[in-house]
Amino acid sequence: MRHAVAEGNGRFHGHTDVPLAAEARDELKALVRKLSTYPVQVVYSSDLQRAHETAKAIARKFDTQVLVRSGLREMHFGCWEGLTWRQIARRFPRLSRAWLTQFPQQSIPGAERFDAFKKRIMRELNEIVAVNPASCVAIVTHAGVARLMVARALGVRDRQLSRIASDPCGLNVIDVFRDGATVHLVNG
Question: Which end of the chain, N or C, is more open, meaning fewer C-beta atoms within 10 Å of its C-beta?
Fold first, then answer.
């Protein structure tokens, strides 16, 4: 799932470590209620505080620990970090258009390359699945990471990632098997 709403929601935070917004408290309560029907045994989280704070609320409900993994961070957006899309389009008009039309090949100056980001996330997901066979695991992360995980399960091409919604506290439920996955819920 994606973390609860962060301060400055709508900005490309990437690796910028922003806290949760005041309105996140109600979102967290609703998320914990949604998760109460699942037998969560372990909670994983990105090391960024917006994800970690969300994960701690879930872990309290299930009386379990949060395992922090920096590899679950959002993609680093380089010179776009902290900006809204409107600011990006105004400051980087050619680059922003190229990014829209040539994603995922178009890179952003100073940013993590998409192929490296995807490799990092898939490695993390594979490791989590490998050490938790037949377990219900909650992974609290970021919009881009959640999109990648859902896309992998559905066989969606990278170019189409933006078609997968990932709202704050958006819950995705995926059963992962040795030879594939079944998606039960997207952005619920």
Answer: C
